[in-house]
Amino acid sequence: MSNKPIFVTRPNLPPLAEFIPYLEEIWENKQLTNNGPMHQQLEKALCKYLGVRYICLFNNGTIALQTAVQALELSGEVITTPYSFVATSHSLVLNGLKPVFVDIDPITLNLDPSKIEAAITPETTAIMPVHCYGNPCDVNAIEAIAKKHNLKVIYDAAHAFGVEDDQGSVLRHGDLSVLSFHATKVFNTFEGGAIICSSKEMKERIERLKNFGYENELTINTIGSNGKMSEVNAAFGLLQLNYMEKFLSGRSRVNSYYHKNLSSIDGITIVPSAGQKTSNYSYFPILIEDAYPLSRDELDELLKANNIIARRYFYPIISEFNVYKKNTFFVNHDTAVALNISHKVLCLPMYPELDESDLERIVGLIRSAA
Ligand code: T4K
């Protein structure tokens, strides 16, 4: 059996030859960035593909999150989940806001709506939930709380590209939704990201904020950063879109293989993908429970020793990182569920190119220890 390294993910790369004509076009027209033709085409194509009205493209998901926070003029405290990638709450801290960490639901691993209200104070201005692993949050419960307390909602939808519930794209929920198009994501532009919004005014505001705040050549009324997506990144996105069906069917095959071959192993719990009509199979998280003979870290080591590099997304939880622990810029409620899950979770390799023998290698090792 091959011992080639298998990573938690590999980027989707369409044939290189098909990218060359896009580059030739860019070389020809010499527009490299600043809302060029590729950028405009990608905006249109993504609105259609995702079924959303307005999209603002960014150079990465983190700057998109920071800009979303800025666009809604938030202040004070924002309720969020500690069970996420650090960019979620970093985007708040970088805007001078206080993340308030509230626990997650033990099944969906998303922010637990039943715990949100107890964390609301007069300083609270928004909720920033994450559709973790692409599994939609309890959007109705969150919306009801936001309405009742007059709070804004920004969904960190970095994992939720193309995910749909019964009524359409999950990206339509909340005031804003933010995507990541990083190399490790289901849809990538090498680096990239986006904000989804529902009004022309908000789209214009975000476009200004990602371009230094410029209203026109002579007018700046708000300080903005540089969040613009370049033409090369946008071109790659356009090419990538042609392959989404193929990439997603590859992921779906891997997902089915894991379900079929792991679900009967004592002590392995597959994190359920509930609440969506269309999944994007962005991650394959499992929980290593007490009934399994190895701890999560021991299994991770066993896989690593066999050149299979799984990842412990999300360990440690954000509030456990030194920089958070030793500072007072956040509020921590009881996050026992998130803490417990972070010690049990392991994301298995998930990408379309994994073939039957790769999958046998991974599952075989997990079974051999059971
Ligand atoms: N919100 C959430 C919920 C997020 O998950 C993220 C990003 C963000 C916000 C912020 O969005 P961005 O600003 O990133 O657009 C990765 C990614 O860097 C990060 O984008 C992602 N979440 C996070 C969950 O994972 P690392 O440090 O684990 O990535 P890295 O470099 O170790 O890559 C993992 C594996 O992927 C490698 O072992 C091999 C493979 N890989 C990676 C890259 C970058 C490749 O084969 N080629 C590549 O180019 O953070």
Task: Write a concise keyword list for the protein shown above.
370 residues; alpha/beta; Aspartate Aminotransferase, domain 2; 16% strand; binds ligand T4K
Written overview of the protein:
The protein has 370 residues and is α/β, with parallel strands linked by helices. Helix content is 35%, strand content 16%. The chain has twelve helices and 17 strands. It has helices at residues 20-29, 37-50, 61-71, 87-93, 139-149, 200-209, 231-241, 244-262, 296-305, 322-325, 336-342, 356-369, and strands at 6-7, 54-58, 77-80, 98-101, 124-128, 152-156, 164-165, 168-169, 176-180, 193-197, 214-216, 219-220, 268-270, 284-288, 308-309, 331-332, 345-348. The protein has an eight-stranded mixed beta sheet, with helices on both faces. Strands 13-14-17 form a three-stranded antiparallel beta sheet, covered by helices on one side. Strands 1-15 form a two-stranded parallel sheet. Strand 5 (124-128), helix 5 and strand 6 (152-156) form a beta-alpha-beta unit. Helix 2 (37-50) runs parallel beside helix 7 (231-241) and helix 3 crosses helix 6. The model has no long low-confidence stretch (mean pLDDT 96). Ligand T4K binds next to helix 3 and helix 4.
